[in-house]
TrEMBL record:
One Pfam family cited in the UniProt record for this chain: DAP3
MF-aspect GO terms: structural constituent of ribosome
Region (Disordered): 10-88
Keyword Transit peptide recorded: yes
Chief place where the protein resides: mitochondrion
Naturally occurring in which organism (per UniProt): Carya illinoinensis (Pecan)
Protein name (database record): Small ribosomal subunit protein mS29
Gene Ontology terms: cellular component: mitochondrial small ribosomal subunit
Record localization: Mitochondrion
The entry's keywords: Mitochondrion, Ribonucleoprotein, Ribosomal protein, Transit peptide
C-alpha cells in the first residue's frame, strides 16, 4: 500500500514538472527579439532613407547649379566685353587654325569645335583634354609656348627654308620624348600636334593609349618570330589608323615584297598548314591595312609590316605619335608559364607590335609622351632604343600662363567675381605648383580675403 502511494506521488511530481515549463534564457531572448528587431529595422530604414534623401538633394542641387551655370554662360556669349584676360588682354585668340598660331597668340585660348576634334582625332581624345572641356563647359585650350616650339620643330624639319630670326643655333629633333611632372599637359600637347599635322596633310600614326598595347585581350607566342602576338590590339590599331588616313593610304603603294607571317587568331587558334600570306602585286597601304582588319591571323604581322612601310613613304610627311609611351619600357600584363606552378612576366619589348614601334633609333619623325596616369613609375634617363638627347622636359604652367588660366576659369564661371583677385589666383598657382588639374580643382575654392 505504501509503495503504491509513493509511486502515485512520484508520477504526479514528474507530470507537474513537465506541464510547467521553466523559461530558459533562449526562450526569453526569443520572446523579446521580434520587437527589438522591428525597432532596429525601422531605425536602419529611417537612416538609409535620410541618407538617400540627402544624396538626392545634393545631386539635384548640383544639377541645378550646372544648368544655371550653363544658362549664364550662354547669355555671356552675347557680351564680348567679358572675354578679357590679365591686364585687359584678349582672352581668346582670333587666329582660325593651329597652323597660323604664332608667339603673339601664346597665353591665350584657342577655340575648338567638338565635331572638328572628333574628326581630326578619331582615335580618341586624351583624358585631360576631356576633363578640361567638361569642367569649363567649353572646348578651348591654352596656347602654350611649349606647344608652339614642339610644332615649329617638326615644321622646320619638313620645310627647312622656314626660319625665324630668333632660332639661331636651334637644333632640330626628329625624335622627341615628352617628359615632365604629372598634369603638365604632355598628352594635350601631343594631341594638338597630331591635329596640326593632319591639318597640314601629313600621314600620322597616332596611338592615344599606348598602355592598351600591353594589357588585355588574347596573347600567344609566335614560334616563327619569337615575339608575343596580341591580335585584338592589332585589329583595333589598324581600324583607328584607317579612320583618318584612308585617302592617303589608297594613294601609297606597298614597297616591301614578301609574305606576311601569320599568327594565332583571336580566339580561333592557328590556321592549318598555312604560316604566311602574300599580298597581291600592286597593293596599296590601304589594301595592307584592310588585310589585317579582315584576317585576324594576319593582324599583328600587318602592323609590323606597316611600321617598315611607313619608313619608306617619301611623298608626304609621316609622323608617329605615341601617348603613354613609358608603358613600353616596363612589364606587360601578360605572363608566360615556366613550370606548372610558376610563371614569369612578359616585358613589353617582347610583344611584336611594341617591338616594331618602340625604337627611336631611325630617321623618321616620332614623338612619345610619358603619362603618369599609367602608374609605370620613374624610368631611368638613358632609355634603350631612344637617343640620349630625345628627352624633353615639358613644363607646368608659368606664372603668366596661370594668370590667363585663372581668368579663363573666371570667364567660365568656375569662381565668383566677388572673391576673384590677383592675391587669390596667385595662391592657387603656388599651392598647385602650376599643376593644371590641381589649379582647376582649387579655383572654385577661392574665398574672400579677410
Amino acid at each position: 500500500m505504501l509503495r503504491c502511494i509513493l509511486r502515485v506521488g512520484s508520477a504526479a511530481t514528474r507530470s507537474s514538472i513537465r506541464s510547467s515549463p521553466v523559461p530558459t534564457s533562449a526562450q526569453s531572448y526569443s520572446s523579446k527579439n521580434p520587437k527589438s528587431n522591428v525597432a532596429m529595422s525601422k531605425k536602419t530604414k529611417s537612416k538609409a532613407h535620410d541618407h538617400a534623401s540627402a544624396s538626392e538633394a545634393k545631386v539635384e542641387a548640383a544639377l541645378s547649379d550646372a544648368q544655371s551655370r550653363a544658362r549664364s554662360l550662354a547669355a555671356d556669349e552675347k557680351d564680348p566685353s567679358i572675354d578679357l584676360g590679365p591686364d585687359g588682354r584678349p582672352l581668346f585668340t582670333s587666329t582660325p587654325s593651329l597652323s597660323l598660331l604664332s608667339r603673339k597668340d601664346a597665353c591665350s585660348y584657342f577655340k575648338f569645335s567638338m565635331d572638328g576634334l572628333k574628326t581630326a582625332l578619331p582615335e580618341g581624345l586624351p583624358t585631360g583634354m576631356v576633363k578640361e572641356f567638361e569642367d569649363s563647359l567649353r572646348p578651348a585650350l591654352l596656347v602654350r609656348q611649349s606647344f608652339l616650339d614642339l610644332r615649329d620643330n617638326f615644321r622646320r624639319i619638313v620645310d627647312p627654308p622656314l626660319r625665324f630670326s630668333d632660332d639661331k643655333g636651334l637644333k632640330l629633333k626628329k625624335q622627341i620624348v615628352l617628359d615632365g611632372p604629372a598634369s603638365c599637359g604632355k598628352s594635350i600637347a601631343l594631341a594638338m600636334l597630331v591635329h596640326w599635322a593632319r591639318d597640314e596633310g601629313w600621314l600620322v600614326f597616332y596611338v592615344p593609349r599606348g598602355r592598351e598595347w600591353t594589357h588585355g585581350g588574347f596573347f600567344s607566342k609566335n614560334p616563327e618570330t619569337g615575339h608575343w602576338d596580341t591580335p585584338l590590339q592589332a585589329a583595333n590599331v589598324l581600324k583607328d589608323f584607317l579612320k583618318w588616313n584612308e585617302s592617303h593610304l589608297k594613294q601609297l603603294p606597298c614597297q616591301i615584297d614578301g609574305p606576311i607571317p601569320l599568327g594565332e587568331g583571336a580566339g580561333v587558334g592557328w590556321l592549318k598548314d598555312v604560316d604566311n600570306m602574300a599580298m597581291p602585286e600592286g597593293s596599296t597601304l590601304y589594301d595592307l591595312v584592310n588585310t589585317g582588319i579582315k584576317h585576324t591571323h594576319a593582324a599583328v604581322g600587318v602592323v609590323v609590316r606597316l611600321r617598315r612601310e611607313l619608313s619608306l613613304v617619301k611623298n608626304i610627311p609621316v609622323l608617329i605619335a605615341i601617348d603613354q609611351y613609358n608603358s613600353w619600357f616596363t612589364f606587360s600584363e601578360y605572363e608566360e608559364a615556366v613550370t606548372i606552378r610558376s610563371s614569369r612576366p612578359v616585358h613589353a619589348r617582347e610583344l611584336a607590335m611594341v617591338n616594331a614601334f618602340r625604337s627611336m633609333m631611325h630617321d623618321d619623325m616620332m614623338v612619345g609622351a610619358f603619362s603618369h596616369s599609367t602608374a609605370v613609375g620613374k624610368l631611368r634617363k638613358d632609355l634603350p632604343d631612344v637617343p640620349v638627347d630625345a628627352r624633353v622636359n615639358f613644363p607646368r604652367y608659368s606664372l603668366d600662363e596661370a594668370a590667363t588660366v585663372c581668368h579663363y576659369y573666371l570667364r567660365q564661371r568656375l569662381v565668383n567675381r566677388e572673391v576673384f583677385s590677383e592675391e587669390n589666383w596667385k595662391k592657387v598657382y603656388y599651392l598647385s605648383n602650376g599643376n593644371g588639374t590641381e589649379m582647376r580643382w582649387l579655383v572654385p575654392l577661392m574665398r574672400q580675403s579677410a
